[in-house]
Write a structure and sequence with these properties.
184 residues; mainly alpha; Serine Threonine Protein Phosphatase 5, Tetratricopeptide repeat; two-stranded antiparallel ribbon; 9 helices
């Protein structure tokens, strides 16, 4: 029999997830493109956030591009630590287009940052089910949610799967280093 042990306190580690992995490309005008670029770069300057807000007000965006711009502005809000505003933007995006995996994932990331793995899990799963572009990131985040919930076997399986999907990405390996599988 094998047992799984995890280093004490691992579930309390601040989740250093990069929301910018969830930036959504928009085919709108120059402001929405600037907004996308700022979200991709996790830009904390006012310029990126202003581009997003102006794009939402001034550019005639198709529904999907409007939703993408809300996601991208939400990412910039999240990077700035303005979680309430970020969550509102992700909600606005989902009201327009529930099929956007990045809106679901970023809502989940917000909850992980607060240590709310149980409430993050269904959001992350929705992003995975809707075809998250970076499956490794989404599965890694789900693993962190399981870890926060004390479900270490499920966490380990997801962290291992994330590592398999993107072996050059170091974060899954760093988390896996806290786990020990022992023979009984």
């Amino acid at each position: 029999m094998r047992t799984l042990t995890v280093a004490a306190g691992i579930a309390l580690i601040m989740v250093p997830l990069t929301a910018a992995g969830g930036a959504v490309f928009s085919v709108g005008g120059p402001l929405s493109h600037n907004c996308y670029e700022a979200a991709l770069a996790a830009d904390t300057s006012d310029v990126g956030l202003d581009s997003c807000t102006r794009a939402l007000r001034e550019e005639p965006l198709a529904t999907r591009d409007l939703a993408a711009t809300f996601v991208n502005r939400g990412i910039l809000q999240m990077v700035r630590g303005r979680d309430v505003f970020a969550d509102a933007d992700f909600d606005a995006a989902l009201r327009l287009d529930q099929s956007l995996p990045d809106a679901w994932l970023n809502k989940g990331f917000l909850r992980l940052r607060r240590g709310e793995g149980r409430s993050a899990l269904p959001l992350l799963q929705s992003g995975i089910d809707r075809g998250a572009r970076r499956q490794a990131l989404a599965i890694f985040a789900r693993g962190v949610a399981y870890e926060q919930m004390g479900e270490f076997s499920s966490a380990y399986a997801d962290l291992k799967r994330a590592h398999e999907l993107e072996p050059r990405w170091s974060m899954p390996s760093e988390y896996l280093a806290n786990y020990r599988v022992q023979q009984r």
